[in-house]
Amino acid sequence: MTGGNLDEMLDEDPYRRGRRSSGHADRRAADRRQADQGPDGRYPDGYPEDGYPEDGYAADDYADDPHARDPGVDSRGDRRGGDRRRARRGAGGHEPQDDAEDWGGGWDDDGDEERRSRALPKLIAVLLVVAVLVGVGIFGIGKVIGRVSGGGSTSADYTGMGEGIAVVQVPDGATARQIGVELQDADVTASVSAFVKAASANPKSLGIQPGTYRLRSRMSAEAALAALLDPASSAPFKFVIKEGMTVRQVLKGLHERLGTPLSELEAIARSPAQLGVPSYAPTLEGYLFPSTYDLDPGSTPVQLLTSFVTRFKKEAASIGLETKAAAIGVKPAEIVTIASIVEKEVANASEGPQVAQVIYNRLHDTTGRFRRLDMDSTTRYADDEYEGPLTKDQLNKANPYNTRAVAGLPPGAISNPGIWALKSALEPADGSWLYFVSMPQSKVTRFAATDEEWAALRAQYLAEGGKE
Q1: What pLDDT does residue 68 have?
Q2: Under 8 Å CB-to-CB from 80, ≥6 apart: which residues?
Q3: Which residues lie below 8 Å from residue 267, measured CB to CB, with a gap of 6+?
Q4: What are 313-322's contacts with CB under 8 Å, separation 24+?
Q5: Given a cut of 70, is residue 136 above it in pLDDT?
Q6: What is the distance between the alpha carbons of residues 243 and 211, in angstroms, rounded to a whole number?
Q7: Which is nearest to 226 in space by CA: 197, 199, 259?
Q8: Rounded mean pLDDT of 258-263?
């Protein structure tokens, strides 16, 4: 390797973007040409210096080229590039293959054509991969949007109020889409998205209650929504246990609604263990929690009664019935019994704690004045008689539930108490009251701690039309 070649290589940009000093490189190239010429001005290979014409493009060739440069501009891409091509041609007029043009060669170079031919398949492959990824992305986004919008790519909908009868179950805590699925599966509506759209447009849809509904087949989504908001649609499947109802009253109601023989229902009630009552419960009375229940058409009487008991256990746990009963020295079963008496004696929940305290005061009396509770409500329960005045025979009848004749609490509850009555038994009011009476006109309960106070209350009771 000669010193001249080394200089040229050192002057070459390693990334072939140009040379570091175009002036010095051009002068060195000219010196080499003069040194290589013979006396006759020819090169050793016999070609004259001007044997090749200028290989730059003609001026007209730049006329339509948007990338053409001003021929008067001294840049690496035009004049100097042409000088280099002339200076560096080798024997035979060919340029050395290891010294490519600074800017990558002309557009018509064979090397570029070869490189482009190799790059084209790679470019096509990259484009195909990008197209596949974009397609998958669009498909995935479409699926996500479909799920968010309620499922299904269409909003097919029926028209009108529908026909026939369709029974639909709305689960507890169901969303609009979940309700839409139930409706579509029962052929009440044509699509899930149609119902979701109708529900989204109507804020009242948030008021749809869980339960069983009697609807029609092939209803419009708006008609189905209106039916779900109409209490009449669920009324045939609703069963209400009111506060203070007895087991007998509950069984009679189930008989009327389900058609199950009353004797069959009574036989079930006589074996409360199969219904899951608490271990401390002596009977079923008091453990059918008052509430509104959904009558699933496929449920058996045992399943329905079990659901009533399960609700009691849930509510009792929520107020800590067993723990609080132990804290005041009362058995859980006695709490339920006292609460059932409170439920029957007063109508106003705010008066419950005072009535509970009267019961405790009479049970704990040591003066001998109250050997018995003397509660009419327990005597009425014994005779299943809740209307009209009690007779002397009823008041004196020897019956475990007749607290006028038997000391202490009755053997079990006399009704199914609500949550307020249970709380009253667990948290009685502080007071020394021994008497109370509900006024027939003012509808309030008055309390007395002494015989004198009680005499005044009895006089007021009779003045309002009360009967002995």
Answers
A1: 41
A2: 22, 26, 74
A3: none
A4: 313/276, 313/278, 314/289, 315/289, 315/419, 315/422, 316/278, 316/422, 319/419, 319/422, 319/423, 319/426, 321/422, 321/426
A5: no
A6: 21
A7: 199
A8: 94
b/e burial code for range 161-195 (CB count within 10 A of at least 16 → b): ebeeebebbbeeeeebbebbbbbbebebbbbbbbb
User: Tens of pLDDT along 18-36?
Assistant: 444 444 444 444 444 454 4
Percentage with pLDDT > 70 across the chain? 68
What is the C-alpha to C-alpha distance for residues 365 and 185, in angstroms, rounded to an integer? 65
The answer to whether the predicted template modeling score (pTM) of the entire model surpasses 0.70 is no
